[in-house]
Structures are given as structure tokens and as C-alpha cells.
Amino acid sequence: MRTHTCGELRRDSVGKRVRLSGWVESVRDHGGVIFVDLRDRYGVTQVIFDPEDSRETWDKAQRLRSQHVVAVAGVVERRPPEMENPKLATGEIEVRCDRLELLNASLTPPFPLEARDPARVSEELRLTYRYLDLRRASMQRILQARHRVALSVRSYLDRMGFIEVETPILGKSTPEGARDYLVPSRILPGTFFALPQAPQQYKQLLMVAGVDRYFQLARCFRDEDLRADRQPEFTQIDIEMSFVSVADVIAVVDGLLAELFRELNVPAPEIPLPRLTYQQAMDRYGSDHPDLRYGLEIVDLTNIFADSTFQVFRRAVAAGQVVRALNARGLGQTPLRVLDEWTEVARKAGLAGLAYIRIAGTGEWKSPILKYLSDGEKEALAQRAGIQAGDLVLFAADDRAVVSKALGELRRLAAKEAGLIDPDRHALVWITEFPLFERDEAGRLTAVHHPFTAPLEEDLPHLESEPLRVRSQSYDIVMDGVELGGGSIRIHQRALQERIFALMGVDRQRGEARFGHLLTALEYGAPPHGGIALGFDRLLMLLLGAESIRDVIAFPKTQKAVDLMMGAPAPVDDLQLRELHIRLDVPRLSP
RNA sequence: GGGGGCGUAGCUCAAUUGGUUAGAGUACCAGACUGUCGAUCUGGGUGUUGCGGGUUCGAGUCCCGUCGUCCCCGCCA
Questions:
Q1: Which of A117, A499, A543, A587 is paired with A579 by a 20 to 30 Å CA distance?
Q2: Alpha-carbon distance A329 to A75, whole Å?
Q3: Is-cis flag, bond preceding A423, omega within 30?
Q4: Dist CA A534 CA A262 (whole Å)
Q5: A110 CA to B54 C1' distance (Å)
Q6: Which positions on chain B have an atom < 7 Å from some protein CB?
Q7: CA A46, CA A38: separation in Å to the nearest integer?
């Protein structure tokens, strides 16, 4: 049906007889000559219909409408001088058409599909007619970019000796972690498979199997509420390696990311990527996923205010708390209205209030707390925070964690307010040595990463005595303030795994019931191993500058986890339910 | 589970304090036009103001409920 695509004809094809197929993008009917832009995935070519070439074909061309699918035949011609279109790759030529076949008509599309900056159409409509939305050039570019990145992932990891192994979609529910999507078993009534939240246990078992270097572009499922960067099903670049340390995993991922940036012609970050420990990140940026596209570091002032005449600070220091500040450069003119909002943010983060000093353009300091500060304190403060005219200094005095949380949030707000974020720049950073445990609402120890994460060797002695102090051999990769992925070196010995379970309140019996297969496997020569999972969709979203994860997924779901195009989820036949031995207990929908 | 935004023509939006026959651009339809490429010109409004109820002489506008969608908090080992 075609000899060429709509994106490939150039000057060197002039004189050739060609056939093209594609969608009518626009029709410009001059009464005599008719111009039609024909589009396919590869580009746009102008087709010209002239009544003097073929009256019959010209008649048919008059009836062409947007999005009709046609096949045309004709001769490639150089466009007359002054009639070339530099905006088109094929703009030097056109196809003089003498035969036209309407392959399929199209209804008028429910929204404009033309490439020229269309007014933003509601996403609801785009998702309902996703097959039309995807036909748009900008979405075609995203689909192609996604494909190229996937290919690069496979090619890079293959070169590094990894092999891709598929793991089951029908797996087993484990109560830890996110809510599972369940699939009932017909053959064993009353039992359910769970769709994988991640292939975590399978990939560890593949290490026991001696696969040595595994990867998978793995579909994962989590039944939790959605966000702009969260879908119920998403894709991970899942990696696991044997006989490695933290540095080995990080090196592989550094190389992978650099390659993916290059593939999309996004300015690549220098590798090795910078690293911060969890504690450094919290102290300096107030976040375990800091955005390093801008500075605004938190400075510690605790020792400066140990004997301050300002009671609020002195008492905090005396109570073992910290006093820290953020110098929001150039925000000295921030209106009090905004500072009131920020005070509310600080309160929600746990601070009693928010003290601040605004430095005028003249260099004059203005603040309600100024009268409590000695000249020496001011001088020390000015030096440590690098205060200049026009700055805004925000103070926090409380427990270390509370101060970090508050100043971390204020840091983000200040960067936004000051317009410090350049959307064309990217900043990547590794965050390492996360705590192994944290306490949940009920006061129980739970794993920060997951329960298979290995503790740092040097912290093992206080595993039982001070479990919250124990750091783990874990690492997150953070891009532009977004958590891209995370991983760890895993526990490969049963005894240590059982100690961890015990601390988490998982007794021997329950541990055996839930993770018996894994524990047993550890006893059959499990090699030391570790790995990582990267959010493939999130990575694409950041690399392509997309506004939401939905833009880089062909058929995404809405915030209520609904597929508007397919109408899924949907009720099923009673017969299907009977076969599965499932009876519904659904609250009646309101009348 | 909670907080917030949005919902008017196919699409993107407007409509004064609650007030006459709900408008604009674009798309679409018809006609004209032989070099356009956001073609141009002339003409045409194609509407359950998401849905249901209420207040009112009168509701796109106010109130209650409901549905959909988006953003956020909780949640996401």
C-alpha cells in the first residue's frame, strides 16, 4: 500500500513515482488545486491534487476530511521556488497525486489532533479516546522515546553480562508493603494469587539459582491511591547481582543512567554520581530525596546559640535539640503574607513557630527576634549562613528530625518562590545508609526499605540493643527531588534474616509461613547479593519533561484507577463468579 | 478516609449583583477561490450549562446531594 513513509521523501526522490498511505492531517482546497497534508508515524508529506492531472481523483480529493485514511499514488516533485516549507522535513518536495484511494473514513475527531500547539484538551477526553490521543505527533514521540530507552536498558545490561528473566505475574500475597491486587484461583476455591508489587523475592531466589546477574523490565502492581507520579501498574528496571557490594551496584546504575540520558540527547550527568548518606541529606537538605538542582543548604547554629540571650534558642540547645537555619538567598523582600503561610507549614512539620530575619537591599536586618541576639551571635550567624543584602534567614529550633523536616519543606518552597529551578537541568544524587528500622504508629519496628535489607556490618553489634541506630546497606537514587529507585545489599544468611524478623515481631512460625521458601533457600548456598529497582515510567517522565506519569504510559488509569477507554474495571457475569466461588457483598449504589 | 480546583457548543473558554433570546475563537456544514502549509473570503449555532433536588417572580450563577476528572494529605515494606 506504500513505497515510502510520510517522513522520508527528500529532494533526491524527485521524479520518482511513489505511493504513500496515512491520515489526512489537513486539507487546503483552493477551488482548483487542493493541498493535503498526509501524516503517519514518520512525518508529514504534502500531497497536491490538480484537476488537470486527473479530474476523477481531484473530485475524490474534495471530499477528504481530517483523519480519513488514504492511499495516494503520484510523482515526487520539487516544490516551486518560494513554496518550500522549512518547517517540514519533507518541505522541499510534494507528491503530485493522480490516484487516491479512501481506505477508511473518520468521524470528526472529538478533539484536535493537529501537531500545531493545540489548546490543552481535558485529560479525561484524551484518555477516553486514547487511540486518537496517541495518534498525535507529540504522543508518538513519547512512545518512540520509551521504546528507545527500553532498548538501551536491555542493550547496556546485556553488555554488562546481565540476562533478562521473566518472573510470575500470578504470585503470592505477603501482608507487608502495599495493598495487593488479588486474582482468585478457580481450581483451589477460596485461594488467591497476588499480582507482584515487585519481583523482590523471585530475583533473590534467582541469585540463589546462580543466575549471577539478572534484570527485568518488570510490570509491578500496587493497589494504593494514585498521584501524578504513581499508577497502579507501572514498570521497574529491576536488577539483582551476586557477589557485590554497594559500590558495585551503584557503578552499574551510574553507567546505565548516563547511557539513557545520552540516548535521549538529554545533557548527561557526570559520573560517578554524587553520594550523600541519609544523615547528610537530612542535615543539609532536610529530605531523604533532596532536589539538588539548587543550593540552599541548611546550616547548623546550635553551638552559636548555646548561651544565647534568646531564650527560645538557649532552651532548645539545653534540651539537647538543635538550632538550624536556611538562608533563602535573595528572598529578603518576601511579603509577610507568604511568611505567614510558611509559618503554618513549619507548624505542621512540628515546630512551635518560625523565626526569620529579612535582610533589606541596604543590608539592614529586620526581624522581631533581632533584639534578643547579641552582636557576637549576629556576627557568627552572618558568617556561617553567608548572609548578604537581600537574603531571608529562616530558623528552626527543635529535635533534629523535626528541624530537618521543617527546613526541608521550607527549602522547597523557597526555591520555588525564588525561581531557582531550571527545568532543563537535572541533578542526580545517591542517598545511602538509610536507617534499617523505623517505628510504625503502634511503636513496632518496621523495615525502612524491606525486611531483606542487610545492616551495615559495623552497626551489627547494636542490632538488638539500639535497633533504631542501625544503618543499612541501602541506597536510593534521587533525580530532581524525585525518588527514582532504591535497593540494597540483601541478607544472604538465614540466621541474620531470622534476627531481623524477630526484631520486627515476626516470630519463627509466622516467618516460616510467610517467607519459609526464602529462608530455606538461604540455607542452600545463597551467595551474597544485592540489587536495585528503578521506576522506568518516572525516569521517562523526568527525562522527557512530562507533567505526569500518565503521559509516558500508553494506556494509563485515572486517579480512581479506572481505564476510561476500556471501561475497566467492570462487573462480571454471575457464572464467572460462581465458578470462582465468590459471592459479592457490595453496598448498594445510592439511588 | 480527608482537603482543594474544575465541569457551559465537538474542542478551548466567556457570560456584571440572581435578570431579556447563553456568547467568542476554533472545529464542523454549505458556497466561493489554481500555490497553500494555523490558507483565505461569505454564510450557518449545531447547547439536557455533568446529573438530581431545593430557594426564588426569575438560577449557568445561590443552597443541598450526587457523578466524573485533576492536585494534595493519609497510604505507597
A1: A587
A2: 63
A3: no
A4: 18
A5: 35
A6: 1, 10-13, 25-29, 32-40, 65-77
A7: 6
Q: In a 10 Å sphere around its CB, with 0-12 CB exposed, 13-18 middle and 19+ buried, how is residue A348 labelled?
A: exposed
Q: With b meaning 16 or more CB within 10 Å and e meaning fewer, what string describes A359-374?
A: beeeeebebeeeebbe
d(CA A359, CA A369): 13
Dihedral, CA of residue A13, residue A18, residue A21 and residue A27, to nearest 10 = 80
Q: Where are the alpha helices (DSSP H) in A504-590?
A: 508-522, 536-544, 574-579
Q: Give the cell for residue A574.
A: 454471575
The rounded Cα A6 to chain-centroid distance in angstroms is 33
CB A207 within 8 A of CB A242: yes
Alpha-carbon Rg of chain A, whole angstroms? 30
- Tell me the ipTM for this assembly: 0.93
Which contiguous run of DSSP H or E holds residue A71? Answer: strand A69-78
Is A354 within 8 Å of A339 (Cβ atoms)?
A: yes
Nucleotide nearest residue A348, measured CA to C1': B73
Residue A507: predicted pLDDT: 82
Report d(CA A456, CA A434) in Å as an integer: 10
Given this model, what pLDDT does residue A348 score?
85
CA distances from A60 to A21, A31, A37, A92, A438 (A): 16, 13, 15, 26, 72
In the complex, which nucleotide's C1' lies nearest to the CA atom of residue A550? B70
Q: Are A51 and A62 in contact (CB under 8 A)?
A: no
SS (H, E, C) A381-410: HHHHCCCCCCCEEEEEEECHHHHHHHHHHH
How far, in whole angstroms, is CA A10 from its chain's centroid?
39
pLDDT at site A290: 95
Q: How many angstroms separate the CA of A15 from the C1' of B41?
A: 35
